[in-house]
Amino acid sequence: MTLKRDYLIDNIKGIMIFLVVLAHLFEFNITPKISFLLIIIYSFHMPVFVYYSGYLARYNASKIIKGILFPYLGIQIFSWLVYNSFGFFTDFRLITAYTSLWYMISLFFWYISIPFVENVKHPKILILLLFLFGLIIGYDATAGTILSASRTIVFVPIFYLGYFSRKYNWFNFKKNSRLFKLILPILICAIIIMFYCLRNAINVEWFYGYANYSLLEYNPLIRFLIYLISVIWILFFKLFVPNKKTFISKVGKNSLSVYLLHYITIFLIVNNTNLLKIGSYPILNCLILAILITCFLSQNWLNDIMRGNFNKNSFSIKTFRSNRGEK
């Protein structure tokens, strides 16, 4: 029996992974307008991704090793070889992720924690305690990038919010969808206006979750507001993204290969070409490159490799034709 795909999740993941690629391209081409766009993107793209990672999470030891640990180790080693050839990250690091690979380490720890909390009697209390822990950890200067400790703790309440949302059918909009469709866009507009008014005071790294309060000069109240804004964005996308197959669905389905390979791809482009500097429209350059990178890295055969699904069908002529839309 073939399970029906949830295109809502595919579409949301597709949008988020495209924005991950776009944001990392933006970081190599900073302008005042791009800085403002980065504040907006970072306020939701990883929290939404983490939420749906939790929503889809199931504890399976072999899948954790094959689908998370092995891809992380493989890309970590490959990234080091590439970066080292350009004079970056000359010391090999295993427990401190290169660039965006932190998410794989955090995902590993979140998944292996599932058996300890999946049958908790009061999940809402657990979620509140995890949010509180996420606020408190900001005072700990030792929780940093090693083993992605800070981010793992900061984002874990979002992960389990997604996990228990599916288990207990939280955030069901069927009864009050009209009310939420009215309120959520107003809240999102208010958030964006607030970001614009405070754009010179906001440090985009506040949204990263990787450092303590003293290092980035912020406080638990700011992190609390970041949590609140994240949840509003999660509800917004859950309500307004279509639950049907679209052109972005395939990208969401194959988001792993995009996530694992996009940063090294961007690094090679930036260090070997001037594509981001062509013309006078840096935002347009980044948009075009983000579309091209996302489309290429979301191919079925490439995602199969990243997931360790090596079979003859993955590399057949039929598969390559299918990737190009041929029959």
Report on this model:
This protein is mostly helical and about 325 residues long. It has two domains: about 1-30 and about 250-325, no CATH class; about 55-240, no CATH class. Helices cover about 65% and strands about 0% of the residues. The protein is built from 15 helices and no strands. The protein has helices spanning about 5-25, 30-40, 45-55, 60-85, 100-115, 125-135, 150-170, 175-195, 215, 220-240, 250-255, 255-270, 280-295, 300-305, 315-325. It is globular. The protein starts with 6 loop residues before the first helix and ends with a helix. The model is unreliable at about 315-320 (pLDDT under 50).
Short synopsis of the structure:
This protein has helices spanning 7-26, 32-42, 45-55, 61-85, 102-117, 123-136, 149-168, 177-197, 213-216, 220-240, 249-253, 255-272, 282-297, 300-307, 317-323. It has 327 residues and is mainly alpha-helical.
